[in-house]
Amino acid sequence: MKTLKFPPRKTKAQAMVEFAIVLPILLLVVYGLIEAGRLLFIYSSVINATRQAVRYGSASGIGPNGVERYRDCAGIRAAAQRGDFLNAFDDTDITIEYDRPTTANPDPAPYDTCDGNTDTIAVQTGDRVTVRVRADYNAIFPRILPFLSRTVANGNPIIAESSRTLLLSVAISPPLENTVTIITAHTPDPSQIGQSVTVSVTVTASTTPTGTVQVTAQDGTSCTITLSAGSGSCVVTFNLGGTKTITASYSGDSSHKSSSGTATHTVAKWSTKTTITTSPNPSLPGNAVTITVNVENVPGTPPGTPTPTGTVQITGSANCTITLSNGTGTCSTTFAATGSYQLTATYNETSTHASSNATTTHYVLLPPETVTLITADTPDPSQVGQNVTVSVLVIGHATPSGTVTVTGADSSCTITLSGGSGTCTVVFNSAGIKTLTATYGGDADQTGSSDTESHTVELAATTTTITADTPEPSTPNQPVTVTVVVSGGPTTPTGTVTISGADTNCTITLAGGTGSCNVVFNTIGTKTLTATYNGDTTHAPSNDTESHTVASVNCTAITHGPLTISGGNMSMTITNPTGTTVPIQDVTVWWNHDTGRSGNRALELNSASLGVTFWTGNVTAPTYTITPTSLSIPVGTSTITFKFRFNYANQDGTERILINLAAPGCELYPIDSSR
Asked: Containing H/E element for 75?
């Protein structure tokens, strides 16, 4: 059996001796840590103090002491002191200096210091402020530990400095304004390929943008606009046809953000003309026929426009595809049986040229058969009585000769063929849809044939003209004579013309294409007369308008002379200087039972006249009122006269003539011999 052995336990005396030996070492370690911590803390505080102070002194703006921070000496020192937690330094240990470094001399000598609470320092952009701080470090146990004190008195303080460039001002740019770019116009629209298109652009914001706008045409060119008052224009072109997009991109300026806008523009492709022919035409059944097509730019296309390229599709009674070479091409086909065959050539559009098509008729004949065609009947439509030229083509395996008779018109005609074709003239005497027939009688080698064609005949166009409306101006209720002339067509128009636009209208029956009638206006103002020709069996209706003025009358300008009695007549002169006749409403005359000079017989009123006699009768009453159907006071001086059966015997001064006027505004100004 093994036995465990333990070392003998220490005595108290031995423990105390060991502790006495270790304690000094432990104290040295503790004191060393304290001294090292103090030294490092003071050193860190000095460095931090210089940084805080130089940061304060280099900042822009006014400090809490009411002066610029770079010359706020007290403020700079206070910033440094805020980092001194162990009172290792005071204001006298803080030095503030200014220098002006350059590329050639990056570390120059100071040119000024900041003394007192504030200082007057002539600084400029790029100058530098330097803050230097010194502090004392006194060892607590200099005899025990190998830490040497560092003090100002001994000439070896702890020193730190920091430098920063002065921030005299901070430029803060205002936020850029949003802009809106709009393409206001792109003309002409649509345009042609290669045509100059002027693009106008406006850029808007709360203030006026400046700078440039880049304009880009899809499948085309670009251009640059220099804005003037926020707008401008430049020219682009397009290389391909179709619907394109124009983009305007504003690049912005120092105050405005960039923006862009788009617009849709149509570029028309070059127009084309397609023609198709067959050869030989006519052909024999089963024989080869060559189909030839030609595609070209339409007349008026600018010089230099490319010749159409691509393909043409032949459809109808034959099918083939032709690839164009210099705008033309061919393909071959055959037709098995006699008859007429319709062929259509369709040019397939490309990126530069628009589609077009044409048709032709090919004939397959067996000799001696022929085909007669009415190729034109011009003009169509024509007018009644107008010459219509009918063109005819007769085809066969040999050139037809002989004559073609054209019927279906009111006058027929006969064509003597020359080279298988010819023309003659027919006339239609009535309007409507007519049918022309061309009949070829054949010749010694070929049989006859015929063709029909629909033709439209319209009534002859006419022109209606109001040649006069007198008097002009007129006055209310005054007759106005309207004269009209109707012309046009191979014969003179007949029928009626309706005059409207007045309060009382009228109808003219034409004689020799002209005529007149009277209308009446009841009110003043600018009126519109309309003459409507109603047409006849050979002439189409037409119309004309004419402005007419109905003027008011200066009634107060009309004067009269004294009432005069001579024998059996009572009269009064009237002077009308207005330049227009003035209509009369009614006339009243008083003669007051004068017995006359023939016994005791009372006077008898027999007639009244004003230029012309406007009333006759037998009235023995002392007064009488006449309401004429149409009576006006003439321009100038005239005389109104009343005739009695007997001569006057006794005048007592109560005789009187009163004329009431009908012109608007004149009702209150009657012509009264007693005034």
From this structure: helix 73-81
Q: What angle do CA 23, 26, 30 make, to 5 degrees?
A: 135
Task: Evaluate the omega torsion of the peptide bond into residue 634 and state whether it is cis, within 30 degrees of 0.
Answer: no
For residue 83, give every residue at least 6 positions away whose Cβ sits within 8 Å of its Cβ, in sequence order, or none.
45, 48, 49, 52
pLDDT at 144: 60
**Measured between alpha carbons, how far is 200 from 588 in angstroms, rounded to an integer?**
79
Residues 6+ apart with CB under 8 A from 484: 464, 465, 466, 467, 497, 499, 508, 510, 514, 515, 516, 531, 533, 544
Q: Which of 369-373, 412-416, 439-443, 553-557 has the lowest mean pLDDT?
A: 553-557
Parallel, antiparallel, or unpaired: how do β-strands 382-383 and 449-458 relate? parallel
Taking CA atoms, 153 is separated from 46, 136, 462, in Å, by: 17, 9, 130
C-alpha 475 chain-centroid distance: 46
> CA 472 from chain center: how many Å?
43
Q: DSSP state, 70? A: G
Burial class (CB in 10 A: 0-12, 13-18, 19+), 366: exposed
Name the phi and psi angles at 198, rounded to 5. Answer: -85, 120
DSSP symbol at 611: S
Q: Lowest mean pLDDT of 49-53, 311-315, 625-629, 663-667, name the range.
A: 663-667
Handedness of CA 550, 552, 557, 560 (dihedral sign): positive
- Per-residue pLDDT of 510-566, as tens digits, reads 999 999 999 999 888 889 999 999 999 999 999 999 999 887 778 889 999 999 999
DSSP annotation of 282 = S
Dihedral sign, Cα of residue 84, residue 90, residue 91, residue 97: negative
Q: What is the average per-residue pLDDT within 349-358? A: 94
CA dist 373 and 451 (Å) reads 6
Give the CB-side neighbour count of residue 13, counting CA atoms within 13 A: 0
CB 612 within 8 A of CB 506: no
Q: How far apart are CA 436 and CA 428, in angstroms?
A: 11
Burial bucket for residue 624 (CB in 10 Å: 0-12, 13-18, 19+): middle
Q: Would you say residue 601 has pLDDT above 70?
A: no
**In angstroms, rounded to a whole number, what is the distance separating the alpha carbons of residues 521 and 528?**
11
Q: Which residue carries 């002066």 as its tokens?
A: 67
Please count the other Cβ atoms lying within 10 Å of the Cβ belonging to residue 531. Answer: 25
Tokens of 167: 């921030």
Q: Cβ(328)–Cβ(292) under 8 Å? A: yes
Strand 559-560 relative to strand 564-566, pairing: unpaired
Q: What is the pLDDT of residue 369?
A: 94
Name residue, tokens 């024998």.
Answer: 567
Q: List the beta bridge partners of residue 243.
A: 266
| Least confident among 21-25, 141-145, 204-208, 605-609 | 141-145
- Cα–Cα separations (whole angstroms), residue 260 to 10, 65, 156, 178, 202: 96, 51, 69, 11, 11
